[in-house]
């Protein structure tokens, strides 16, 4: 489990603090009394979790683009962080098809800019780059991918994240920066996500409108997990790199137990929704995907704390209680506290 004593007073530079995962991460870091500077564009949805919980009132926030190398360099250098957690990205598969140049510019060149800023910042002891479970050359196999499997990606989003992995490896090896590691997480769910073309937000919107959700690939499987589980992995990995240095400079998977992998239709049903087939197939997406997290289990002691049924229950409760008028900030803080208390 992430160690609050490690993070208390630690200077942490987080890119993408206004995104879904970034907001949950910064809420947790500030709860542990880390000194956080966030660097991100304005939230891309309305509503959005960052504004609902007032995350920028808890940290030093800069609204800027990771594609702007000079602004990023100045912001990171001036803060002199101990740890850099890079989450900023174009994170949607279908948007990758409609905006491929933006996707590659953000996910590849943006990552390069972050690592160049890290290379020039002697204060940084750990730089963690978040990529995706979709970085692997997906052969639609039932066998989970481990960190040694080939990289690939048949859609722009997946390919851009695989490229980000190569950039991180290049900067780690070519520039001899053992502080750089990458983290590949499964499909995250949790309260406060309103992104378009993402299953749980689409399902929540359909439920609120008392309409069925239209599914493109109801039998597709994904390694679903509550957002707090991979975030816990990222924090534990950063702590490990701080202590182990070059011995941890590599890629790491964070995914659910194989028994918790579910189809898209299963997730909708568990959330209380109903679905209809999509009238159009849309662009190609992976049919089956799973990652092997044995390395994180063995070397970090990390394991998912929420089984899929619990993750879904927490997610449904968050949206329902927020819809009934409860404060989003209170709901986030309550679920982080419950997660920390899990055995």
Descriptive account of the structure:
With 343 residues, the protein is α/β, with parallel strands linked by helices. It has a single domain (4-341), classed as 3-Layer(aba) Sandwich (Rossmann fold), CATH 3.40.50. It contains 13 helices and 13 strands. The protein has helices spanning 4-7, 20-31, 49-52, 69-79, 93-98, 100-119, 156-174, 199-208, 228-244, 264-270, 294-300, 308-323, 328-341; strands spanning 11-15, 35-40, 60-63, 83-86, 126-130, 180-185, 187-189, 213-215, 221-222, 224-226, 251-254, 262-263, 275-277. The protein has a seven-stranded parallel β-sheet with strand order 3-2-1-4-5-6-11, sandwiched between helices. Strands 7-10 form a two-stranded parallel ribbon. It is globular. The N and C termini lie close together (10 Å).
Sketch the major β-sheet.
Answer: 7 strands, parallel
Which descriptor suits the 3D outline? globular
Which CATH architecture is right?
Answer: 3-Layer(aba) Sandwich
Which fold name corresponds to the CATH topology? Rossmann fold
Number of strands: 13
What fraction of the residues are assigned to beta strands by DSSP? 5-15%
User: Share of helix among residues?
Assistant: 40-55%
**Please, what is the oligomeric state?**
single chain
């Amino acid at each position: 489990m992430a160690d609050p004593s490690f993070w208390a007073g630690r200077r942490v530079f987080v890119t993408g603090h206004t995104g879904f995962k970034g907001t949950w991460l910064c809420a947790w870091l500030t709860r542990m009394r880390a000194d956080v500077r966030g660097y991100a564009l304005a939230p891309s949805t309305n509503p959005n979790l960052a504004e609902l919980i007032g995350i920028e009132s808890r940290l030093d926030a800069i609204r800027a683009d990771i594609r702007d190398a000079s602004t990023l360099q100045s912001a990171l250098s001036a803060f002199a962080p101990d740890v850099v957690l890079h989450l900023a990205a174009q994170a949607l598969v279908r948007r990758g098809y409609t905006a491929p140049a933006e996707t590659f510019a953000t996910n590849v060149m943006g990552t390069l800019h972050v690592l160049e800023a890290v290379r020039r910042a002697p204060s940084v002891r750990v730089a963690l780059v978040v990529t995706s479970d979709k970085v692997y050359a997906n052969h639609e196999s039932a066998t989970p991918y481990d960190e040694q499997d080939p990289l690939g990606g048949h859609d722009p989003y997946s390919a851009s994240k695989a490229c980000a992995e190569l950039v991180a490896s290049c900067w780690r090896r070519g520039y001899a920066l053992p502080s750089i590691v990458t983290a590949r997480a499964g499909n995250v769910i949790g309260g406060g996500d309103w992104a378009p073309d993402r299953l749980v937000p689409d399902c929540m919107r359909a439920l609120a409108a008392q309409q069925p959700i239209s599914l493109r690939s109801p039998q597709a499987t994904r390694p679903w997990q509550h957002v707090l589980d991979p975030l816990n992995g990222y924090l534990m990995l950063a702590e490990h790199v701080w202590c182990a240095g070059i011995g941890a400079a590599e890629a790491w998977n964070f995914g659910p137990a194989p028994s918790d992998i579910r189809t898209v239709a299963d997730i909708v049903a568990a959330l209380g929704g109903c679905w209809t087939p999509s009238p159009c197939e849309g662009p190609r997406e992976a049919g089956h995907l799973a990652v092997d997290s044995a390395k994180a289990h063995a070397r970090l002691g990390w394991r998912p704390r929420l089984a899929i049924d619990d993750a879904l229950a927490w997610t449904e409760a968050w949206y329902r209680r927020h819809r009934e008028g409860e404060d989003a900030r209170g709901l986030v803080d309550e679920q982080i506290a419950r997660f920390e208390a899990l055995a």
